[in-house]
Amino acid sequence: MDTLILIGQIILVILGLFLVLVILLQPAKTAGLGSIAGGAETFFGKNKSKSFEGRMVFLTKIAAAAFLVISAVMVFLQK
C-alpha cells in the first residue's frame, strides 16, 4: 500500500507542475485595440478550438480533472 501512495504522490506532483505550466502558457484574454475595429473576428477567432489557445484550454481542463480525481483517490488510500 505504501508503494501505491508513493506512486500517487509522484503523479500528483507531476500533474501539478504540468497544470501550472499549461496555465502559464495560455495567451492573455485581453484583445487590445484590435478588437475595436472588429479584429477579433478573424479565421483564428472562428476556429478557436483548433488553435493553440483552444488546445491549452482543453489541456487545462483535462489536467485539472485528473488532478482532482487523483487527489480524491489519494485521500481514500491514506485512510
TrEMBL record:
- What biological processes does GO assign it? protein secretion
GO cellular component: a single term: plasma membrane
Q: Which domain of life is it from?
A: Bacteria
Any one GO molecular-function label of the UniProt entry: protein-transporting ATPase activity
Q: What is its main location?
A: membrane
Give the bilayer topology: Multi-pass membrane protein
Q: What is this protein called?
A: Protein-export membrane protein SecG
State the organism of origin.
Luoshenia tenuis
Q: What is the lineage of its organism?
A: Bacteria, Bacillati, Bacillota, Clostridia, Christensenellales
